[in-house]
Amino acid sequence: MTTTDTVRPSLTATELAAVRADFPLLGRTVRGGRPLVYLDSAATSQKPNVVLEAEVDFYEQRNAAVHRGAHQLAEEATEAFEDARAAVAAFVGADEGEIVWTPGATAALNLVAYAFSNATAGRGGAAAERFRLAPGDEIVVTEAEHHANLVPWQELCARTGAVLRWFGVDDDGRIDLSDVDRVVTDRTRVVAFGHVSNVTGALAPVAELVAAARRVGALTVLDACQSVPHLPVDLPALGVDFAAFSAHKMLGPTGVGALYGRRELLEAMPPVTTGGSMVEVVTMAETTYAPPPQRFEAGTQMVAQAVGMGVAAQWLGELGMDRVAQHERELATELVRVGEIPGVRIVGPADTRDRLAVVSFVVDGVHAHDVGQVLDDRGIAVRVGHHCAQPLHRRFGVAATARASASVYTTAEEIAQFREALAGVRAFFGVD
Amino acid sequence: MSSLEQMYQQVILDHAKRPHGHGLVDAPADHRSGESHQVNPTCGDEITLRVDVDGSTVAGVSWEGQGCSISQASASVMTELVTGHDLADVARLDAVFHDLMSSRGKGLDDDDALDALGDASAFTGVSQYPARIKCALLGWAALKDSLARSGALS
């Protein structure tokens, strides 16, 4: 985690009200006229007017295919597309050449996994040696991963003969580094981990994991979906080799995300999806490929969505991610207080150290689905289920949890309403 | 009654707390038997259901599983409802229950059909909530599959 040294104050009540007024959806009611209390931002965030307007404006004024065409619209569309890339890059401290547009974070993680696969199959020439796996090589993940940062690595292992290994988590859901030297070995080629758990909200020990990977020459892949929208994140400063994040969790549109890769690695990595726009010279027999990032952007891109993602990054940047983080730290303090409600047990850290405003919990005697339904009746939207992290739920011996998660537009009053509603759930089901 | 109370009717809460048919039972050797495991991947609900068919009659249904009150209560109500019934009746009940679940909270016009469902008619309120319909149908899906596996339908 990278934060500025001087902590600026959180958002004032006036600023927060102005922020909320910028999100049209937050003004609607649900379930018979109840004001919406949206506590499902870890699944997807709501969108401010500037993002919605940017997409409409692109279609109304600039829509054209990018990186081709000699007309003015094509120039303007290309400029908007590349300006958005620069905005997203700046938001995470990267150079624009290090940001590849993808359909989302899942696609970004799969891109890296399939690049390893293609290199292992002999593609990419000598430059791709770092991506070539041999049977018995090891890929390391953690028990806390979202399926998007687990299943692609399982599949890569199945295709290459590499072996999947993982760090367990402790009873607080934090990654257990006690056996780091046994998990990360001379055979380790990749260490892939989430920056912040989408279930527990716990921050990963990034510095320790990066150091362990570097000691053995392994590449690091960071799933930054749950951190980038909530913390100041400087990916080069974190020292990771690759990172994936999606627009829709950071106030941007669905259908677009980004893969960050250190430039020398993107240059050495063979392409994955092939076709138009990612080539240099094509003959009937063979093809040479464009330099990154275009090498990884085959086909017509999601231009309007990318523009929206750029605007979302700028909007957050102007508000100040240090202040967003401070606001959400206060919300996390309010959220973990669900642990004070009789019969409610937090899955993950019950304290506020190194955690974000995402809290999953079980209610004794009431299934998570039923908890969510009663909250929904009060207008409170939470996520229920395994949150795409079945192994972590299995680790805690539960099939499902309910999860409340905050974003920049969430208020402490909303969390108080949520706690009050949650306190009534066991009585509703006659559980004592 | 609010939508929430329509869904969580007392009869449903009672079945969820004290489900019928819970705990797998072996069928007698001279009966047909089939077993099915069904999962609702969105919420992790699971059921393993075993059916015991004597000739053309469902002689017994037993199951174990974990899940929300709707899935547990529905499996319980279904167990009570179909036990002792002829296979053709069970197919009809299955069809009527599916119709009820597709009714978006409106229920069924056919009062006789609704009467035939007994306690299962209490699930009308569930059909207002698209995300919960699968919960109510989990046990029924397991019954249908286990009947097919038992060979009793062929």
TrEMBL record, chain A:
Family according to the record: Belongs to the class-V pyridoxal-phosphate-dependent aminotransferase family. Csd subfamily.
CDD domains in the record: SufS_like
Q: Which InterPro entries match?
A: Aminotrans_V_dom (IPR000192), Aminotrans_V_PyrdxlP_BS (IPR020578), Cys_dSase_SufS (IPR010970), PyrdxlP-dep_Trfase (IPR015424), PyrdxlP-dep_Trfase_major (IPR015421), PyrdxlP-dep_Trfase_small (IPR015422)
Q: What does this protein do?
A: Catalyzes the removal of elemental sulfur and selenium atoms from L-cysteine, L-cystine, L-selenocysteine, and L-selenocystine to produce L-alanine.
Catalytic activity reads: (sulfur carrier)-H + L-cysteine = (sulfur carrier)-SH + L-alanine
Broadest EC class assigned to this enzyme: transferase
Q: Which PANTHER family match?
A: CYSTEINE DESULFURASE, CYSTEINE DESULFURASE 1, CHLOROPLASTIC
Aminotransferase class V domain mapped to chain residues: 37-418
Q: What is this protein called?
A: Cysteine desulfurase
Q: Which cofactor does it need?
A: pyridoxal 5'-phosphate
